[in-house]
Every structure is written in structure tokens, then in C-alpha cells.
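Let us practice reading a record.
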Amino acid sequence: MTFELTLLGTAIHILIWEKLPEWGTWFKTLISLLPSPLRTLYEQWHCPFCAGFWIALGLHWMTGFWTIPELNGLSTRLGTVGTPVAWILDALATATLIYTAIIALKAAGLPAMKAHMMKEDFMTSAFGDGSATTD
């Protein structure tokens, strides 16, 4: 098993659904200019598994990377349907890993965020204006 597609897919998911919307209004304006079907897809595909599946298919097509390289041999066993079946199965496996990565990052992020806020509160109460904070 390889993790290139998972890492790339997780990064793309974070960029498109978590980071770009925070970088000013330009991205939201761009999304609002999309045709209605594409805008609806963006709004509905916040799920890391659903988006991860399509991201994985696109990345596989562009890079040729496999999450489960052994699936590449399905075309010899299943004939003409082997390649599409192999791509779909690999994208499903990659989407599962992307989903797991996003859930794990969010689970780790909450305690880290709480600890940061607690530190800020402590520094403010101990030193008044919080100017003595150190990172």
C-alpha cells in the first residue's frame, strides 16, 4: 500500500474546503460565479469520503499513482472491465484513508485549539494585556 494519493487528496481537501474559503472573499466570489451544477457540487461535497473519491480518481488519472498497486493487475483477470473496476476500488480505498486522515486531524485539532485558548486566557489573567505571550 502506498500513501501518495492519500496525502495529496487530504491536502487538496483541506485546501479547497477549509483554507481557501478563509483567504478573503475572492474564493467565495469565484464559487458563486460557477455554473449552478458545479456550485451545488462544491456546496454538497464537504464530506471527505465523497470528495476524496473523486479527488482520488482525478489524481490517479493525472499521476498514475495507486494506493493499492496490486489492483493494477485486475485488467488481466477481468478483461475490459478490469481497468475501471480497479480504478474505482483504488479510489474507494483512497477515499477511506482521506476520510480517516481528515477525522484524525480534526480530532487532534480540537485539544490543540483548547490548549492554545487556555494559554491565552492564562497569559491575559497573569500579565494583564497578554503582551508577555511567547510561542
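A brief commentary: The two ends are 38 Å apart (CA to CA).
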